[in-house]
Amino acid sequence: MIALDTNVLVRYVVQDDPEQAARAARFIEDRCTAEEPAFINGIVLCELVWVLESVYELTRDEVTSILDRMLRIPAFEIEDFDGAMGALRLYRNGTCDFADALIGLKNQRRGCSATATFDRRASRIPEFMIVP
Questions:
Q1: Most exposed of 11, 15, 19, 91 (fewest Cβ within 10 Å)?
Q2: How far apart are CA 119 and CA 121, in angstroms?
Q3: Domain with 61 in it
Q4: pLDDT values of the chain reduced to their tens digit, one per residue, 132 residues
Q5: 77 has which bridge partners?
Q6: Whole-angstrom Cα distance, residue 33 to residue 51?
Q7: 109 in a domain, yes or no?
Q8: What is the pTM of this model?
Q9: Is residue 108 included in any domain, yes or no?
């Protein structure tokens, strides 16, 4: 199995660098299949969201649309698919950032009762608690 780095996914999604975008598309379309999917880990998903929002200034709706499609591509194996989908739901609702949602859900699945934080926005979801 081959894993994909954030920069490959960014080029594939954004198509801002014609040469790298073509290489990313060719690689993904030629090498990543349902039988031999490319692995995408949670850190890569978090970085992708950050880059799309911060660098390319995409809206939350645009990013959620991209993520929703990406998570469902059979040629991609998503680390903790259920956690990523749960984080996408929370992110789509505007409750918190995608990375915070994924962190909270992953920690909860590891048996943590909560994730301690100073982030008031993250603390709006039950997986987090504000440090008193």
A1: 19
A2: 5
A3: 1-79
A4: 999 999 999 999 999 999 999 999 999 999 999 999 999 999 999 999 999 999 999 999 999 999 999 999 999 999 999 999 999 999 998 878 999 999 999 999 999 999 999 998 888 888 899 998
A5: 39
A6: 25
A7: no
A8: 0.90
A9: no
